[in-house]
Write a structure and sequence with these properties.
heterodimer, A: 56% strand, globular, B: mainly beta, 11 strands
């Protein structure tokens, strides 16, 4: 059982829709992450939050908007996505956003853009 | 520019034998290395890690070896079990500063353990 919970597990949306992905952890971790994983590729980092503040944005298009309402929750707001944005979106958390701290992943949201 | 490389897309071993998964990296600033296992329809599961100040770390059946001069690490699984069949990702992270938390993954190796 994963300790990082992501909802929904699957999401199909049109290019004009607005939707949100949610991630929750109750391990007391103070760093949370969003990754994107395409088929047969490794996860690629999108955003890092440390103590609820955005610390890394890997030049992600503005149609992806992250939000960290509190230390346990991380959202990813989606708007006007493109078909190439279809992927598995993974959330992770770690004790702190520094080295020597493993990141623990949720099972992801499988996103399909029509 | 692929900074973490797993050159073997797949590996097949017999149950009870040793599985050796390899990983090479190019960024000499990396100082913390991790291995993750991923089953289909699940997120990556953390297995074992090693800091650059060590050359070996062991946890049960899993041992990670780090050769900094060769920029190479390996994961040994002994004995291998059918339940170990999964995709294994090597990952690395730099020491900090503006790159805090920036985990870079290799392409993954599909391990199949035959009964």
């Amino acid at each position: 059982d994963t300790e990082v919970t992501q909802t929904p597990k699957h999401l199909v949306m049109g290019m004009t829709n607005k939707k949100s992905l949610k991630c929750e952890q109750h391990m007391g971790h103070r760093a949370m992450y969003w990754y994107k994983q395409k088929a047969k590729k490794p996860p690629e980092l999108m955003f890092v939050y440390s103590y609820e503040k955005l610390s890394i944005n890997e030049s992600v298009p503005s149609r992806f908007s992250p939000e960290c309402p509190n230390s346990s929750l991380l959202n990813l707001h989606l708007h006007a996505l493109q078909p190439e944005d279809s992927a598995l979106y993974l959330c992770a958390s770690s004790q702190w956003a520094n080295s020597n701290q493993p990141q623990h992943f949720g099972d992801g949201t499988r996103l399909s853009i029509l | 520019d692929q900074q973490v490389k797993q050159n073997s897309p797949s590996l097949s071993v017999q149950e009870g034998r040793i599985s050796i998964l390899n990983c090479d990296y190019t960024n000499s600033m990396f100082d913390y290395f991790l291995w993750y296992k991923k089953y289909p329809a699940e997120g990556p599961t953390f297995l074992i890690s090693i800091s650059s100040i060590k050359d070996k770390n062991e946890d049960g059946r899993f041992t990670v070896f780090l050769n900094k001069s060769a920029k190479h690490l390996s994961l040994h699984i002994v004995p291998s079990q059918p339940g170990d069949s999964a995709v294994y990702f090597c990952a690395a992270t730099p020491p900090g500063g503006t790159s805090y938390g920036k985990l870079t993954f290799g392409q993954g190796t599909i391990l199949t353990v035959h009964p």
